[in-house]
Amino acid sequence: MNVLGIYGSSRKGGNSDQLLDNVLEGAAFSGAEIRKVYARHLKISGCQACGGCNKTGKCIVDDEMQSIYPLFDWADIIFLASPIYFYGLSGQVKLMIDRAQAMWSKRMLEKDSEARKRYDRGKGYLIAVGATRGKNLFKGSQLTAKYFFEALDMSYEGGIFFSSLDNKSAVKRNPETLQEAYDLGRQAVSS
Q: What's domain 2-190's architecture?
C-alpha cells in the first residue's frame, strides 16, 4: 500500500504537521510505504487556466509541481493535512490543489461519464486543525478536499477535524488527538 502525506502548513512542526506525522506513523505500522510532500517547500505557481492540459491531461507549466504529479499516480491513499485559515485550507496547499486541474483533465479524457461515477485510484483523507470553534469551520476545507480527491480519481473518506488548537504545541496537550491520528493511519491502510 502506497501512502502519500501532504503537509499543508507553512508552520514547520505545527499542529497539523504533528497530526499528520502520527497518521503516517500508524500507516507505516500497518505496512504502508510512505512518501511526504511539504507544500511550504514547493516552488509552484497557481493554475493559469491556460487550457494546456485539456487535450493531454498534463500540465504544461514547468515548475516543481511536475515532481508531484507522479506521486499522485503512485499513491493508493493520500492524507492531506492543513490548518484552517478563513474557513479554508492554507494558501500553500491550495496552490497545489488548483494545479490538480491537470489530473481532472486526465480523468475526463480517460473515463467516460459512466466510469467517472467510480473512483478507481484510491482513497483520500483530510486532517484539519482550526484555532476557533466556528460551527462551519471545516465545511469549506472538506468541500475542497472532496473535489481535489475526485480530480485524482480517489474517493473522499472524510478525516479528522480539531478546533480550538492554535498554539504550536496545543496538540501535545491533547494526547487523545494524537492517538486518533495514529488510529486513522492504521485503519485507512488496514481497511
A: 3-Layer(aba) Sandwich (3.40)
Give the length of the chain: 191
Domain chopping of the chain, boundaries:
2-190
CA distances from 48 to 1, 3, 95, 102 (A): 33, 29, 11, 11
- pLDDT digit string, tens, across residues 29-83: 999 999 999 999 999 999 999 999 999 999 999 999 999 999 999 999 999 999 9
Q: Say how far apart CA 23 and CA 79 lie, in whole Å.
A: 8
What is the grid cell recorded at 104?
Answer: 481532472
Locate cell 484555532: which residue? Answer: 131
| Burial of 169 (C-beta count, 10 Å sphere; 0-12/13-18/19+) | exposed
Tell me the three cell numbers of residue 176: 487523545
Please tell me the pTM assigned to this model: 0.96
Structure-derived torsion over alpha carbons of residues 163, 152, 155, 129, reported in degrees to the nearest 10: -10
From the list 108, 94, 95, 91, the residue with the least C-alpha distance to 51 is 108
Which of 120, 138, 140, 118 is CA-nearest to residue 129? 138
